[in-house]
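Fold this: HpcH/HpaI aldolase/citrate lyase family protein
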Amino acid sequence: MSAPKNTFKAALREGRFQLGLWAALGSAYAAEILATSGYDWLLIDGEHGPNDVPLMGAQLGALRHTPTHAMVRPPMGEAWILKQLLDQGAQTFLIPMVESAEQARALVRALRYPPHGIRGVGAGLGRASDFNRVADYVTTANDEICLIVQVENRAGLAAIDEIAAVEGVDGVFIGPSDLAADMGHLGNPGAPEVLAAITHAFSRIKAHGKARGIMTVSLPQAAVYRDLGADFMAIGTDVNCLVGAVGDLRRQFLGEAAPAARGGGY
């Protein structure tokens, strides 16, 4: 028996567009509902969502036997938390605020067993090896790891070619909200200057043969990003979906008009 097949990584290699959703509620119950809603992947957000390792582990368990692939974003790309999430069964990682090839190379090593990395051997205690029931897990795990690095400021954009060229980086995800803020357009990721930067970044990522990722909560903006060549994209969050649905239900019953759009990024 080998490590589980990473269906998301396989899809990117085959050029199949992957549609996703953000999970930030910190609830395995909510994650289970989202996992059977038709999305290809679900991002368990430990950066901005109220998630710790046990909560993220519970959500990984909820998605384990569903058709939706689990992607995990830790608060930072630190080896200690990546090690724990790997043992909990995470195979695909979105790492925030990557600004250099040096950072990217360190992340590649943190996610792999020796001699290609520094991951500690202890998966027999966790879900990753089906609690030590997968005999060949440690010898096959490296091949199923998918690393997505998140570029979301001008420093990262300046190093986009060096970052995308790192072996072991499977994709580069542009964070439009933080990028817009860093470029002086806080709260306006659709600004023309920001879109031009994203367009350029996408072209450089593609030139290195890596997958291009992004997210938005605006469907018109999502169409723009798809036309630019996004290979994987999230089009909403569980929080926004919940807020929108409960508000719309009440307004429809009372016959009230919908309020003007507002919010701080996603």
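The mean pLDDT is 96. The longest strand covers residues 18-23.
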